[in-house]
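Supplementary notes for students who missed Thursday's class. We covered one full example, reproduced here. Read the sequence, then the structure, then the short commentary at the end.
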Amino acid sequence: MTIKYTFFSKLDLKKTKNIGLFCDENFKILSLEKLGFLNQNLITNLIKNNISPKKEILTINVSDKQNLILIKLKKNQKSVDNEKIGALFYDYINSNSIIDLTFVDNNFLNKKLDQIFIEEFLHGIQLKSYEFKKYKSKKEIKDFKINFFSNNKKIKFDNSKKFESLLSGINFTKELVSEPGNILHPDEYAKRLSTLRKDGLKVTVLDEKKLKKLGMNSLLGVGQGSIRGSYLVCLEWNGAKNNSKPLAFVGKGVCFDTGGISLKPAKFMEDMTYDMAGSAVVVGLMKNLALRKAKINAVGVVGLVENMPSGNAQRPGDIVKSYSGKTIEILNTDAEGRLVLADALTYTEKKYKPKFIIDLATLTGAIIVSLGSEYAGLFSNDDKLANQLYEAGLKVEEKVWRMPLNKNYDKLINSKNADMQNINYQGGAGSTTAAQFLQRFILNKTPWAHLDIAGMAFSKYNGALNSWGATGFGVRLLNKLIEDNYE
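Structure (token representation):
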């Protein structure tokens, strides 16, 4: 959907079909002066007859040719509430096939808050309106026009660049996650990331030849059964005026995960196109930081592979030597994401010496058993970083819940044949042992957090700020973390 908005200080409301008004929690309209051509008592009575405490949006049919659409706002709404009411409004206009609506400034909001509220409200509409229909043979193009009628001629969107950049990053993430595996394989993915140079990012692509020379056998082992290449791609943004340590973000980019020789069941395997969502979040975040000219230094590192069964595929029982020098016994080739991240984490820490490292991955089904689709799992070796992520998540409605790490879990991934094994078959705690595995590749005590987003990256039902499909979860969370703590 294309959303256009215009401001008017003069408008003939008598000829306007759909008029929008913001109201309080009881649908009380503070001022109807601009609607003087309508019968005030009639409107008040119509509202009373149609009011329902469960409704957030109320439609009043004033006549055959005109509707009043009332949107309820709570007291002391936060930014995310403004965005959520915008998303809810999008659902309303979409389900009612409304293509043109004029909001009237009825003095409900404090003048100082008007512009911020409108920007956040529109941002919510745009977040919810994303749909991936690239491969539909018949594309329905929708245009929705919003007018704002106000005497305030000085309205200016001071934050428009910020919201546009964030939306661009989120939508890029959603697009990457939504692409099918036959299109977005590692070779194509690496090419698309190279195009981000135009946004101001430094892009370095390490192919198989370079990875072999570096000794990234943990990552390479995952992809060796595929006819496609394996890559490590580094995206750098240098927006700080000094040479401060960068903030580092690492993402799992398994473009399609069959499970390898430890083959997954056929049912729902098609969902494994989004097993690269962690990498897509990192990419979307870096694009956003570059577009909005964030005043920080940041690096995004993504490992891109395809996990396929073939005569050359990695076998259960294989032992590989990681970039860190530590050896790993592969007990299950479907526990592959941690193998990709292992080399990526050590490389990021060693090369960039960052202030912190946050990795994201659709890593375990166990985290969905624990937290469902309401929270991402958070594991960290640093209380400060963990608390910052938790607080940022609450502010943007991308919530995380801290899960335990403890040396007592190490015995579940210790191997008799190598330094460690890639999966725990006894003792449960699947998400924690996966995170415990990753922590072994943070060699220099760098503050680190792991976000298991397996339950959050893709939704089969509508969320508050996203429609069915790729959610883009993580871009807003990490952007807020940076805004509040590091800029």
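Commentary. Residues 160-178 form the longest helix (19 residues). The mean pLDDT is 90. If anything here is unclear, bring it to office hours.
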